[in-house]
Amino acid sequence: MRQRRVSYHTSRAAAALPLKSPLPRDRLLSNRVNATLVVEEKRTSTRLINDLFRRLGFTDVQTAHSAEDALRMLRERKFGLVLADWDLSGLSFLRAVKTDEKLRRTPVVITAAHLTCEQVVLARRTGADALILKPFLVSALRSKIEEIAINRTQPHFTSA
Is-contact 84 111, C-beta < 8 A? Predict the structure, then answer.
């Protein structure tokens, strides 16, 4: 009996595929956000997330593989968006960002493979601007970034 060989795309082959040019709304979104910081321990996840940002037209995407490196990078340079993994000391990282006077307005999106209801509530109370479960599509990432951008531009009303 003859065996069939099944070939799968490798990361090298997938990287060679041409990317579609970003949609006009994606270009506007990437221009509003500017620099992006991805805080992720796993290199494969980092590559996949960076690819999603590239598809959205984001050109300035930096990576940190630890919370300490991410905090150092945030203090050295202004980022328009931070995408941080919950499993990589996400809560302590989020607290450090949101309690720092210079960093507190930086939008933080928490990513995780799974979250309990308590973790979602805790992340929101600590200051997470959005949460997204892995694996996620480019459309889900776009939606979260648009949500953050809209919330940042709307005026906050207070009762008199």
Answer: yes
- List per-residue pLDDT tens for the chain, 160 residues long: 555 444 333 344 444 445 566 666 566 666 667 799 999 989 999 999 999 999 988 889 999 999 999 999 999 999 999 999 998 777 899 999 999 999 999 999 999 999 899 999 999 999 999 999 999 999 999 999 988 887 766 544 444 3
Looking at the domain assignment, is residue 13 inside a domain? no
In a domain, 14, yes or no: no
pTM: 0.77
Which residues form the domain of 103?
A: 23-150
Give me the residue label for tokens 């989020």.
94
Find out whether 133 and 112 touch, Cβ atoms under 8 Å.
Answer: yes
Query: CATH number for the domain including 50?
Result: 3.40.50.2300
The torsion angles phi and psi of 108, rounded to 5 degrees, stand at -125, 125
DSSP count for the chain of H helices, then E strands: 7, 5
User: Distance between CA atoms of 123 and 159, rounded to whole angstroms?
Assistant: 26
